[in-house]
Amino acid sequence: MKTIFQKPPSKWTVIFTGLTWAIVYFLVRRLLNNDQLPQGWSIVLALVPIIPFAFFLAFMLANLRQMDELHRRVQLEALAIAFPLAMLLFMLLGLLELVIQLPPQDWGYRHTWYYLPLFYFIGLGVAWRRYQ
Questions:
Q1: CA 10 to CA 5: how far, in whole Å?
Q2: pTM of this prediction?
């Protein structure tokens, strides 16, 4: 099956698209704080970060397909660590929410997704340490 890429994107392309996605996300988040936008435009604006994230994901997958077996295994182990940590975080927050009122300005969706890349990088560190 042919992909849209004739050759895999460079590491810097992946980093650039990841940074572009992050910048677009924070810019959109800042713009959405403006209460004067009509709701329809706010919804459209909230969907804008999907576009650079889709490119980031496509470039990441293209790079993953070009990696050797060791690098693929490290990536898999990083995700195998990150996913249960994310489940644990959301389970814990869900249970705590039944008992105490968690402030949404600290523990809402806008704030907790930041932990997911952190968990991935923790998993990446653990996996690389194992293979050194």
A1: 11
A2: 0.78
Q: Contact 45/31 with Cβ under 8 angstroms?
A: yes
d(CA 19, CA 13): 10
Extended beta strands in 4-122, E state? none
Tokens read off for 29: 């988040």
Buried b (16+ CB within 10 A) or exposed e, 4-28: eeeebbeeebbebbbebbeebeeee
Buried b (16+ CB within 10 A) or exposed e, 47-65: eebeebbebbebbeebbee
In the chain, what are the domain boundaries? 1-66, 69-132
Rounded distance between C-alpha atoms, residue 121 and residue 128, angstroms: 10
21-41 residue pLDDT tens: 999 999 999 999 877 889 899
Number of Cβ within 10 Å of residue 96's Cβ equals: 12
